[in-house]
Amino acid sequence: MQDEEAAPRKFDFSRIFIYGALSLWAIVCLFPIYWTVTTSFKVAKDVQKGAIVPWVGYNPNWLGWRSLGLSPDTIGRPSTVRSEFIGRFFNSVITSVSASLLAVLIGSLAAYGLSRFAYKIGWMRNKDISFFFLSQLILPPVVLALPFLVLYKELALLDTTVGLILLYTLMVLPIVIWIMRDQFGGIPIELEEAALVDGLSIWGAFFRIVFPLAAPGMVAAFILALVLCWNEYFFAALLTATHGKTLPVMVASQTGSQGINWWSMAALSAAAIAPLVVIGIVLERYIIKGMTAGSVK
User: CB-based burial of residue 213 (10 Å sphere; 0-12 exposed, 13-18 middle, 19+ buried)?
Assistant: First the structure.
């Protein structure tokens, strides 16, 4: 026994390989964010020569943030560009959050019905209905451009946040339904049956039993929908002109007479990424719970 305890521990090469691969993948995933943030502190010559490490390859400069009125020396002064940025930022927040909440609300109810009740619409059953929702993602956005443009013109929804909210809700609803269908499918139906025996109604069993268990999945679905809505560019550029523009449209418009202003675009992109990073960090535990829900029964 003593000889076995005194024997040196062997290196676990498989664990070293796994952690090394994960570290390499983390670097690959985080490098674009690092590149964007550092580019926002470069001037034209630093961008052209591809300097990577600040204070080694180049000296950081506030040029990109100054062009947006967000540098330390301009933040206290009136700025037209900063006012436009704030307006576009709030447009993105309102449209993305509202559409994501609406999609989670409608999608959760639809997914709960598909996981608990049997439906028959013509030849379609529950699996067919679920696939029908997912099939809405097959069509490329450009195919829907003209119909939505004509429809929104007739409904006076062009260049409005309400129009984008409705469209974004329709865009992310199939994904939310599929996520929440698997989420509800992982919750034993016996819990609801016991609640019904105890005198609760179907809605009472849903809100008191199912909802707390499905909340992590709802948060994960909300964050995924929020990211998709926040980054959406095509319809925001097509259906808005002035009042309803969002941040992605403003980021894509950072061009000048001499080409693309990479420093301004990088500063705008960094400002647009920051809220999603904060949300991801704050709600990390809910994301993990939502993604792993139903994996162990």
Answer: middle
